[in-house]
Amino acid sequence: MEGSAAVPAWLLNRQHAKAIGEASRKKAAEAAAERESTRRKAPASKLEKEATLSQYPSIPLSEYASDGDHLAINADYPGLRAIHRDPWIFLVSDLLSRAECEELMVKAGPHFQSSGGYSNNFRTSCECRVARHETQRLHARYAKLLNVPVGSLEAAKVSRYRRDEFFRNHVDVLSGTDFLENRIATLFVYLNDCEAGGETRFLSLPSQRSLEYAVGEKVCCLSTGRDVDGEGDYPGVIRAVLEDGSVDVDFDDGDEVARVPRSAVRAYETLEVKPAQGMGVLFFPGYLPSSPKAMRFRNQLDRYTVHEGCVAVDEKWVHQSWVWPSHPQAHYDGVETGAVGL
Predict the structure, then answer these.
(1) 3 state SS of 51
(2) Is residue 295 one of the residues assigned to a domain?
(3) Are residues 196 and 92 in the same domain?
(4) What is the pLDDT of residue 315?
(5) Is residue 241 part of a domain?
(6) PROSITE patterns given for it (predicted)?
(7) pTM, whole model, 2 decimals?
(8) Are 95 and 280 in contact (CB under 8 A)?
């Protein structure tokens, strides 16, 4: 155009680089502000923590003993509380201090990536694996609780769920592992308090409730293929009762199965755990390789451990660790964060 001069390429490149730098700094500042907002929430007092724990069942630890099918843990570990039996589920109060929770958030925050392996309508969180050498003290602590060598633990994982994010019903064992090698314990720690949303809900725990075999009744199915394909017993409802006594079932995840015999339908109950900063949750998603049940169920799955991360209202941060019988096959090396070691 007459009266105008072309902008030199070097200037365009400089302007482009400047714009990218400003956008990157803005993103980092927003992430830091987000972490600071979560951090500044007043920590729960001792009385509040006791009140939180009192809402859960408390099974005497003297009743816990190794069943030979699952990993045997250190029942004398400080703060340990059993909240369910068969399968055993434990809480560990103050497993991490507030400072340790905040440091994990600082480490992971700048390195989050969308959680993989599932579609967006199934899992919507972000996550980061932290380099092993940056969490040596934490892993040593977990090893004492779990009675395992440090080398049996996967690299530490940190996940973040923003408002309306979730993780639908799932199990923690993995496909494609070596024979009789899979996750035998799950230990996760909430890194912040959540006043609303973000609960961990166990979906298919055994129940002594007698079934009526009525339309609309909540049930789990034992012989739909789910108990041998590594997916677990997902809950559903009876859609129809047929003349031969069998039932059609609609599962909560959208699947369905027809003509299920009554002998293959069971009652179930659920259990919810509310996020509380520093509190650990421990359960056993897979059987030990030495257990006869490990041969019966694909991926060594204990089908009673199906669970979900409920929709977040308050932003939720959680740190996960998994135990393998020997060395983890899901190595996930983790990123070098350059932050303080834990």
Answers:
(1) helix
(2) yes
(3) yes
(4) 98
(5) yes
(6) FE2OG_OXY
(7) 0.84
(8) yes
